[in-house]
Structure formats: structure tokens, C-alpha cells
Amino acid sequence: MRIVKSIIRYLFILTASTAVFLFVLKEMAAAGWEETVLDLIFLLVLAFVVHQSKLSKILIIKEIPAIAYFSCAFFSYSIMAFLFIGSPLWGAVFLAASISVFIFLKAVMRRKGKRIGFNVFSLINFAVFLIALFSFPNLGHLSYDDMDREKWDRAGLERPGVNWLAKSLPMEDGFQAIYPMGETELVKRFDPYMIHVIENDAVLISYERRKRIDKINLKTHSLQYFFREGGRRPFFFLSPDNKKLYTGSFYDSPPNRKMFEVRVEDMSMQREIPFGNALNGEKSPVFNGFRIGSAIGEQKYVCTFQGDIFTLGEGNKVENSFTSASWGIYNHFSFSQELNRIYAPSFPWRLYSISMRPLELKAERFLLLGMWTVPIVKQNEVATNGAFSVLILDSETLETKRKIYTGFGIRCLDYDPMRNWIYVAKYFSGELEVYDLGSGEKIGELEVGPLLRCVCYSPATDRIYTGSSTGVLEISPEIFSK
């Protein structure tokens, strides 16, 4: 009986710790590192208070300290793993520091007749991570913006076939953003997050934290932008005629949630479309954070961070809605009117296929670390990324038809229908890799810059557009054919 109780206890602690850890990851994505650390510190303080009080003898409540320690351990070890991936040297230094301090304390406490265990080791790891976070802010944000730029110069970016639309240069207080017409701006971070090309006229660029959307004219190289208050990551979508742009407040709370309609011609605000007070059938807020959308005719599709999809009809009233079983549809919804599908990866382990008319779940499957989907209409396929490969799936059933091994670190994909190529953006290595979709053969690669968040191919210009911390590039696919 004692063994059964122990098993139940440890399963409860593990389940609760995993839930807290997933909440922390969500908080990290939504609110940033600083608030995440404060949440964990609050959890540790709560654990200490419970441990020192009479509540420590009450069933379930007495397990709070163990849950707190395990949650901090999961978080600290995951960060250590990220550090190893992005910067093996610093990852090794911090892990070695944690182990060394633990061994030293254990030896000292043994001489005093006391023992220390996993909880102390977890706290040491968390403390070392905090030291790294405050001493090296670039590590805390998984940002490698201050990497040696000579590496990227040696990569051969200054050559025919590669054109800078925007370049960032490291400065003492941030980065200097340089645009084609010579405009410069001192920014705290340069972090392109989403790129869209309007025919052969202009490129639209949004950023992770700059809260604005840039429009660079491809003919005149002039710069216009729309500044949006409230929340990071200004996702956007366009009307079918490309004359209107829609973006929204990602993290704002009711009643501030709204969608902005912007005139693309001069990037000026046309109107605000409030939807923060709309309620669903369960009387809870409909919109829990604008993510991305699409417009087909007068109907708009709006997707949210927590996995809800809504259609807005005439008068921008909610007509239909769909809620997935997962709370964290993290990154990229893709829409295909031809296939009548919305593809939604639910990071870190699900992929959903949803019909657009009506909004109904058609298929779902397990997908580890999937963040991006690209419909391939003529072949009735959809490309998505797994943990270490690009998966080519059946557009109806989501069954795997073939795999293209690429290695770890895929952030974004796009498809080139003229050559049947798939473009793969590697976040940490900063490499743009090109593969033949049919054979799976690697065509080539180009180091374009660290924190490579987005890649976009435009058939109208026959160019590839990438956004990293070094800048926004316009690349000719012909450089991979040589």
C-alpha cells in the first residue's frame, strides 16, 4: 500500500510540475522573460512559506514545495538546453558552475552533519540562470544579436543576387536600422517577425517587439510604416485586393482587444474594429489575443493565440467559431481557399486541419515541435516542420507522404512553385536552406544572419525575402543554381 501511495504522490507531483512548466513557457512567450522569472520567484516564495507553516501537514498542499522545485528545475534545464544549442560554450560554463557550486555546498554541509539534495541543486541551477540572464541579457532573450558580424560578412552576402532591404548594425545602445533610401533609426532590437510581398510593388515587414509594420516600396525604395500600440508581434493579413491591411492587439485584455484596418497605400489608420467584449456561448471572451487571419471576399478569418478561429461577416460581427482542444496554437496558421482548409500547428505536439466553410475539424495528428505550415495546392499536400525534418503531408488526412531531414532548429518554411523547392529558415544557425521537394535533395544554403525568424518567396518578383537580426534580405533563387 505504501508503494502505491508513493507512486500516486510522485505522479501527482510530476503532473503538477509539468503543468506549471507549460504555463511558464506560455507566460514566457506571452509576457517575456522578466515576468516569467518573477512568476517563478513567487512560486518559490510560496513554497517556502508553505514549508514553514502548519499548512505543510495538509494533504496536497504539502506537496507545493516539491512542485515548485521540480518546476524551476524543468525551466532551468530547458534554458540550459537552449544555451547549449545556441552557444555551447556558455551553456557548458553555466552548467559546470551549477555542478561545481552544488558539489562544494554538499561537501561543506556533510562536514556539518547535514544533507542537501535535488531541491538545492534545482535552486542553484535557477540562481545561475538568473546570473546569466542579468549579466548577459542576450542569453536571457535567446538573442545573439551581438555575435561577430564578420562571420556573416564572410558568408558572402555582399554579392550579386543578394540585396539589402534593411540592415541593422550593432551600436552601444542598441542597433542602427538602415533602410534603402538612407533613412536610419536607433532601435533597441531589430527583430523581423513576418514578411509579406505585395505583387512586385512593396514588402511588408512586422517585428517581434518594435510594434510597427514597415512598408518598403520595391520601385522607389521609400519607407512608410504603421505604428500599433499594445502587445508584441504585430501579425497582419491583407484584403483580397491588397488595399487594406488588418492587424490586431495580441496580448491586450478586454475591453481593449481590437482589430485595426490600415490603408496600405499610405499605411494610415482607417478604423478600429473592437471585438474585445464579444462573448461566445459559454459567456467567455471570444477573442483571447489576435494571432493571424485571412480575408476572402467580405469575410474575414481571425485566429487567436489560444486556438480559437472566428469568421467575421458583414459589419464585422462574429458569425462562426471553432475552438481546438489545445490551448497553445503558437505560431502560424496557413489558409488555402483552393483546398478549403486552415492548417494550425499547436506547439509543441499537435497539428489540426480545419475546413474554412464550415469551420469544422477534418483531421489532426501528433506533430512534435511543429510551428509552420505551407499548403502545396497543385499536389494536394501541405508541408510542415517537425523537430528535425520537413514533413510532406496529405492535405486531407495529414498522413505523412515523405520526409526531408534538415536537422534541428527550423523556424519557418515557404514554397517555390516555379522550381518545386522548399525554403527552410534555421533560427539559431541563421542559415537559409533550400531543398527539392520531390527528391528531398539539398540544393544549397546561405548564412543570412542569427535569429532567422521568417522567409517568404514571391512568385511575382521571383525573389526570396528573409528577416534576421542582421537585416531583411532580397535573394535571387538563381544563386543556388550555380
Automatic annotation (TrEMBL):
<feature type="transmembrane region" description="Helical">
    <location>
        <begin position="37"/>
        <end position="55"/>
    </location>
</feature>
<keyword id="KW-1133">Transmembrane helix</keyword>
<feature type="transmembrane region" description="Helical">
    <location>
        <begin position="91"/>
        <end position="109"/>
    </location>
</feature>
<protein>
    <submittedName>
        <fullName>Uncharacterized protein</fullName>
    </submittedName>
</protein>
<feature type="transmembrane region" description="Helical">
    <location>
        <begin position="116"/>
        <end position="136"/>
    </location>
</feature>
<feature type="transmembrane region" description="Helical">
    <location>
        <begin position="67"/>
        <end position="85"/>
    </location>
</feature>
<keyword id="KW-0812">Transmembrane</keyword>
<dbReference type="InterPro" id="IPR011047">
    <property type="entry name" value="Quinoprotein_ADH-like_sf"/>
</dbReference>
<keyword id="KW-0472">Membrane</keyword>
<feature type="transmembrane region" description="Helical">
    <location>
        <begin position="7"/>
        <end position="25"/>
    </location>
</feature>
<dbReference type="InterPro" id="IPR015943">
    <property type="entry name" value="WD40/YVTN_repeat-like_dom_sf"/>
</dbReference>
